[in-house]
Structures are given as C-alpha cells and as structure tokens.
Specification:
The chain is about 15% helix and about 40% strand. It has about 220 residues and is mainly β. It has one domain. Strand 11 and strand 12 form a beta hairpin. The relative contact order is 0.20. It binds zinc ion. Zinc ion binds next to loops.
C-alpha cells in the first residue's frame, strides 16, 4: 500500500505544511460494522453481508467496507479511505490532490510504483493498489516519504483497468457468524466463487503500456 507517511524530523522542521493526501482516511470516518453470512436473495447463495444490507454496499458483486466521507478527526497516515481509493482508481484521480492523474498532453496517467504495491504481469504491465499521482504532486510525495524515495520508480501508463480487490476474507461460523481468515488478500473480479466470502478494502487495477519516466 502506498501512503504518504509523517515527515522525518528534518522534514517536520520545514516551514511547508504537509498536505493530507486525498486518499488518506480520517479517524472520524471509521464505521463499526458487524458482518454475517446470510442469503442476499431468497434463492441466492449464502454470502458475506451486513445485518442491514443496502444495495450500495456491493460493488462489482463484492461487499465493500463501509466508511464515512467527512474528513473529521485525525488523519490516519497508514490507512486509505476505501471509497476515495476506489474513486481515484475508477476515475484516474491523483492520490494526493484528488485531481486528474492524466497528462493532458499525452493522455497517459502518472504513477509512482513501489515494490510492495505492484505485481508485474509482463514487461510493460502489472497490478497495483496504489492510485495515480499527478506530475505536480510527485516531487512532494517523494520529498515527504523517505521510503517512497528509496523504493519507487515513476511510470506513465497508457491504460488502467479494474482487475480485482484487496480484501479481508471470512468463513462461515456457527449461526451464520463470520470468522476472519485473511487480510489484504487479492481477489480478481473474475473469481466469482471467492467473492462471496470477501470484504473489499481496496481496488486493484491493471496498468498497461507502462513506461519508465524521469521525475517531473
Ligand atoms: Zn496531484
């Protein structure tokens, strides 16, 4: 997962205040929710759900973690807001400023790729759960996050297609209870059988036509 972390002590002395990136979660946005296994429809299969399910809880057939959008409380620097991460992936929005991550001149999208948030599929394609970072925000991201500066590379991609999710996984327990079995497990949008026992936390996209770029 790519997040901007708190600045190091030297960066903290900088007169420039650190922006809270668009995709970062805030403490006031958390929602406590119970999960259980039940039939979503009378003739459907038993699957993971909330006690009070709403149509908006499912996306692409997978139950998604509920979260508010108020940005109240304290920023949780190592957590992403599920809905803003999702929106950034679907619309190609910059994870820092929330504006488009697409280069208006070339139509390509900018990405800061890290080892932990990327799995190569071919020489110029791969899966990532990190949203784009626009050229204007890339220098700031690298300046404030020592890990990112050390273990990342800047790419543009010709396209980004939704591929799956990172999810918490569950198995049914006694009386329809949900027993937690895994965290941040990749589940593809074509893996229908596994989707019934997943709670989606982040969207994963497949980047195609990737090209290594200099830092803008
Ligand atoms: Zn930006």
């Amino acid at each position: 997962m790519t997040t901007l972390q708190r600045p190091s002590s030297s960066a903290a002395e900088s007169p420039t205040p650190l922006r809270v990136p668009y995709v970062i979660a805030w403490s006031g946005e958390a929602i406590e929710h119970r999960l259980l296994f039940a039939k979503r429809h009378p003739f459907g299969d038993v699957r993971l759900t909330y006690p009070d399910p709403r149509p908006s809880d499912w996306t692409c057939g997978i139950l998604r973690a509920r979260i508010r959008q108020n940005r109240r409380g304290q920023p949780l620097w190592r957590m992403l807001n599920v809905r803003r991460q999702w929106l950034a992936m679907l619309r190609g929005l910059c994870q820092v400023c929330g504006k488009t991550g697409r280069d208006p001149r070339t139509g390509r999208m900018w990405w800061v790729i890290t080892e932990t948030a990327f799995r190569a599929m071919s020489q110029d394609s791969g899966l990532t759960n990190a949203p784009p970072t626009c050229p204007a925000c890339i220098p700031e991201s690298l300046a404030y996050c020592p890990q990112l500066r050390k273990n990342s590379a800047v790419y543009t991609a010709a396209g980004a297609q939704p591929a799956g999710v990172l999810a918490d996984t569950f198995t049914p327990g006694p009386g329809g209870t949900a027993i937690h079995t895994g965290h941040n497990v990749y589940v593809g949008f074509d893996e229908f059988a596994r989707q019934a026992s997943c709670l989606a936390l982040q969207m994963v996209v497949r980047l195609d036509g990737m090209r290594l770029e200099p830092i803008p």
